[in-house]
Amino acid sequence: MNYSDGDPRDQLTHVGSEVVRAGLVVGSGGNLSARGPGTEDFWVTAAGAWLDRLERSAFVRVRTADAKIAADASHPPTSELPLHLAIYRRRPDVAAIVHLHPQAVLLLDALREPIRLVTTDHAFYLRRIVTTPFRLPGTAELADEAAAATADGTNCVILSHHGCSVLADSVELAHKRALYLEEAARLTYQALVLGRADALPACPPEFLRAVETGTQTTA
């Protein structure tokens, strides 16, 4: 899949298929969106869409400024539309949002166990993870909490007992961040099973400092 060209819907269709194949999603447990190039409109998955069965007709075009849904929409948008709207309005640099319900991430959240950023990939792509309190799915309260959590540039938000939202300036980068977030969660879980979570070291601090200062440009 070439993420650099093509319709955002095709890129998101690829992401949907891949995250299901990778075990990050069961059924329709998530929703995806991306801004169209050169426009404030964005495409978002329709309500109840199975992420591994997406096609262009499974997306709804929405205007960011006033939440107006395109007249030619054949399906209602996901019930999490307020979440996508709030983040796009708060973060003009964000071009894609991947909202999923990955099992390892949610298990650790339920156990109140922080996800450890162990590898250079985790540190480079995720930087930091913020968890928001539980709010009812699909509500303005949940959307406002998530958007506020991203205001400082955070790109990985866990919505307690619900899911996670990862953001990026491209569909490809949002996809990568979703994969690395679940990988970090799985490694943390394995350390818990081994009884060694407290001894699990974070990524070396010199790498973290280099990432924060911008002198480290690759993982």
TrEMBL record:
<dbReference type="GO" id="GO:0005829">
    <property type="term" value="C:cytosol"/>
</dbReference>
<keyword id="KW-0479">Metal-binding</keyword>
<dbReference type="Pfam" id="PF00596">
    <property type="entry name" value="Aldolase_II"/>
</dbReference>
<protein>
    <submittedName>
        <fullName>Fuculose phosphate aldolase</fullName>
    </submittedName>
</protein>
<dbReference type="InterPro" id="IPR036409">
    <property type="entry name" value="Aldolase_II/adducin_N_sf"/>
</dbReference>
<keyword id="KW-0456">Lyase</keyword>
<dbReference type="GO" id="GO:0016832">
    <property type="term" value="F:aldehyde-lyase activity"/>
</dbReference>
<feature type="domain" description="Class II aldolase/adducin N-terminal">
    <location>
        <begin position="10"/>
        <end position="189"/>
    </location>
</feature>
<dbReference type="GO" id="GO:0046872">
    <property type="term" value="F:metal ion binding"/>
</dbReference>
<dbReference type="GO" id="GO:0019323">
    <property type="term" value="P:pentose catabolic process"/>
</dbReference>
<dbReference type="InterPro" id="IPR001303">
    <property type="entry name" value="Aldolase_II/adducin_N"/>
</dbReference>
<dbReference type="InterPro" id="IPR050197">
    <property type="entry name" value="Aldolase_class_II_sugar_metab"/>
</dbReference>
